[in-house]
Structure formats: C-alpha cells, structure tokens
Write a sequence for this structure.
C-alpha cells in the first residue's frame, strides 16, 4: 500500500502541475502544489466527519438498508467525478470526489456495522459484525493488487484505479434490495411487529422467535422510560459514561497503535530496514492477505469462543511487544542480512494480532455497548471521534516520524500497553449477553470505590 501511496501522490501532483499550466500557461509555485495535494488528502477526513454526523439523520429517516443503498449511490457519484477529473483537467473535481468518498466512508462504516449488529442472532452477533472488518481488509487488498504497476498502478490510469471502490458499491446496490430491513429497527423504531417477525424469519429461518421479540420488548420498555437521546444528551448522561469512555479510548488506541503508520508508510519502513525495493510491493500485498486471513479466522474461530475482552487486552499486549522488537531490529539492521526479514516477520505478527484482536473486534462493540435509544447518538459521536482521531493522527504522524525516527515505535508500544491494561481491568465481557445485561455490567464499574453513578444516586436521595 505504501508504494502505491507514493506513486499516487507523484501522479496526482504531476496532474496538478499540468492542469495549472494549461490554465495559466505557467508552472504553479511548489507551495501551491503542496497546498492542493494537502487539500486532496485532508478532504477525505472532512467528508468522513460529515458522514459520521449524518448517521442519525439518514439511518433514522430511511432505515438501515436504504441508508446503505443511498450511501453506495454517493460513492458511485464520487467515482464518476474522479474518473472525469482527468479529462476535464480539474483538480477541483478530485477534491470534490474525495469529499464524497469520505462522506460515504463515514456514513457507510457506521450504518453497515449497525445493520449487521441488528440482524444477527445474539450467539453469533460478534462473528457477523466482524465480517465488516474482514471485507474492509478485502477492500484494502483489492486496492493494493489493482495498484500494482502490472495492473492499474500506472500514471495514465491513476483516475481509473481510484474508482475501484465503485465496483463494490455497485454490488451492494444490486444485492441489498433482496435483503430484509433490520428487525430491531422495524420493531423498536417503527413499531411494526409483523414486519419484524417476517424479517427475522427471512434472516434466521422459520420460527416464532418469541424470546427474541420479548427481549426487544424489554428494550423498548427501557426506551419508553428514556426516549432516544441526541449526541449532546448522551454526552451528559452519566449512565453511559463508561461506554463512551471505553469506546473512545479503544479508537484512540487503535489510531496510535502504529497500524495506520505501518499501512501508510510500509514501503518506507521496509526500505529503511534494508529490504530490496523490488520485493517491497509484493510484501505489502502479503500484508493485505495476512489481514484477510486473520479477520476470517477471528470471525469464524475466536471471537465467539474466546470472547471480546481477551482479544482486546491480549491483542494490544502482543502488538506492544512486537513493536519493541521492531525498534530493536531497525537499529540492528546492518548487523546481518537476515535481520530486515525478522523485522518484516514482526510487522506481520503485529498486523495479525491487530486484525484478529482490537482492529477486528472494535466493530462488534458499536452494537453491543448501547441500547437502541442510545445507539444512533452513540454512532454519531463514535464516528465523529473516529474521523477526528484520523485527521489528528494524519497531521501528527509525519512530525513524529521525523522527530523520533525508528523510536516512534516505542511510543506506539507504550500506547498498546496502556490500552491492554485498560481493557483488561475495565472492559466487561459482552459475549452472549443482552444489551441490557451489558449496560448493567458497566454500571458496576468503580474506581477507588466510586462510580459515575454515585452523584446521580446522591441527587436522587436528596
């Protein structure tokens, strides 16, 4: 991925130069090219932030299934603009396409996980939700493969390779109309018990599903006692403070675990380690294959057998140890020819434990930590945090790499260790539990004998 990122930057900057020259008959100043390229990069995060903010509105208005169809249409529109930008000689169209891509990603990542969590039986809810991470890894692998110079990774085809995501959106538009709407949405938000039962039978097979609908009734009773909240109300609600704190820490830890650095700068890392340039692009494809294999094995074998909590604290722990040894091998790279390949193996171990642990399992928490009345507002807040962290880390990482060099991995290792300790001591196990049971477990968490609910209890007694 890293090598293609470099080529993509080079190709688009050349396109900016030629487009500017065609308009003004003079080459653009170097700082202008840098500014336009920065806009192209950053507008993806801006679009993602707006997409995250719109989750509550779009999913509530259209339902989960139709929201995903609308999201796919937006993605295809972005691809059309990207495809036409080269012929129109307009870098502004690239910026617009990146905004639409980001919006689609911000909206789609939340609605997709929401839909999976609401259609899955409780016993396999984690495995079903984890498929989002698996197909996310598959999408990255397709990008890496199509970005090879033997396929579409050539300068004359840069606008075509950037439209590859539209293919998956087209598949989604063709397939989704044949799938039912989320039963929980139909029953709890629309109050249509017949449509809910029909959707359950379509998804899970014939049956009366009385127990599942009774659970939804219990959740609906909780919602009636506490109507759906806005994101601001959810932030002020002390009863979900631990859930919000936990998911925020996990997202921040994922961003500062070093995974985004390895994904983006893998070419530079392997080159710095001493691996031959011609072997690196195939090694990055191998990293993508490792992600997919790990995501599938985690979904099929581990998450419902081991549980969520061990995958978090264990995954962070192994990731931290791997990064410590990566730092050591980077500083010993000149001592032997086989040291760089040990470092490459350690990075593969890191990716395996990230995808099989925190990276894959984080998606299951979206649908397990919040009851229906809180879920929409939670998705808005979580999605916004995710994209804010993404933008923040994108700004900080280049400076960290310049300042710390190979020792930046020590910083990532420390973050992984802290995340491992937090999830070990404070994250309850959610496997096989109802949303109300999970909510009650969070209410029992205390620090030094105190919890977030103590103030509420004191006010109630008064």
């Amino acid at each position: 991925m890293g090598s293609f990122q470099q080529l993509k930057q080079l190709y688009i900057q050349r396109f900016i130069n030629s487009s500017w020259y065609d308009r003004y008959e003079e080459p653009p100043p170097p700082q202008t090219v840098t500014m336009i390229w920065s806009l192209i990069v950053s507008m993806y995060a801006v679009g993602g932030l707006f997409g995250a903010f719109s989750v509550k509105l779009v999913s509530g208005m259209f339902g989960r299934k139709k929201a995903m169809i609308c999201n796919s249409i937006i993605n295809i529109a972005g691809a059309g603009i990207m495809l036409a930008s080269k012929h129109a000689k307009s870098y502004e169209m690239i910026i617009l396409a990146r905004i639409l891509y980001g919006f689609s990603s911000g909206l789609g990542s939340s609605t997709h996980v929401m839909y999976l969590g609401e259609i899955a039986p409780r016993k396999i809810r984690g495995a079903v939700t984890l498929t989002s991470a698996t197909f996310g890894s598959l999408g990255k692998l397709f990008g890496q493969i199509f970005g090879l110079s033997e396929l579409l990774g050539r300068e004359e085809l840069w606008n075509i390779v950037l439209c590859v995501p539209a293919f998956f959106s087209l598949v989604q538009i063709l397939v989704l109309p044949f799938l039912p709407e989320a039963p929980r949405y139909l029953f709890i938000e629309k109050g249509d018990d017949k449509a809910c039962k029909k959707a359950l039978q379509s998804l899970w097979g014939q049956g009366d599903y009385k127990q599942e609908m009774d659970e939804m009734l219990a959740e609906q009773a909780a919602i009636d006692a506490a109507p759906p909240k806005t994101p601001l109300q959810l932030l002020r609600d002390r009863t979900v403070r631990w859930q919000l704190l936990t998911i925020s820490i996990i997202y921040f830890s994922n961003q500062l675990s070093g995974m985004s650095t390895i994904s983006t700068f893998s070419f530079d890392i392997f080159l710095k380690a001493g691996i031959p340039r011609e072997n690196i692009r195939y090694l990055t494809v191998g990293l993508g294959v490792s992600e997919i294999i790990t995501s599938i094995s985690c979904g099929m074998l581990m998450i419902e057998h081991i549980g969520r909590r061990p995958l978090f604290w264990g995954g962070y722990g192994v990731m931290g140890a791997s990064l410590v040894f990566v730092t050591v091998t980077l500083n010993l790279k000149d001592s032997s020819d086989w040291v760089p390949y040990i470092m490459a193996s350690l990075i593969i171990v890191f990716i395996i434990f990230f995808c099989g642990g925190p990276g894959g399992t984080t998606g299951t928490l979206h649908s397990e930590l919040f009851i229906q009345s809180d879920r929409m507002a939670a998705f808005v807040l979580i999605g916004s945090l995710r994209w804010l962290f993404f933008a923040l880390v994108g700004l900080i990482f280049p400076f960290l790499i310049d300042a710390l060099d190979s020792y930046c991995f020590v910083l990532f290792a420390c973050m992984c260790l802290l995340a491992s300790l937090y999830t070990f001591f404070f994250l309850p196990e959610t496997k096989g539990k109802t949303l109300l049971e999970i909510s009650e477990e969070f209410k029992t968490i205390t620090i030094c004998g105190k919890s977030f609910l103590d103030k509420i209890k004191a006010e109630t007694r008064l």
Observations:
- Confidence is low (pLDDT under 50) at residues 456-462.
- DSSP finds 22 helices and no strands in the chain.
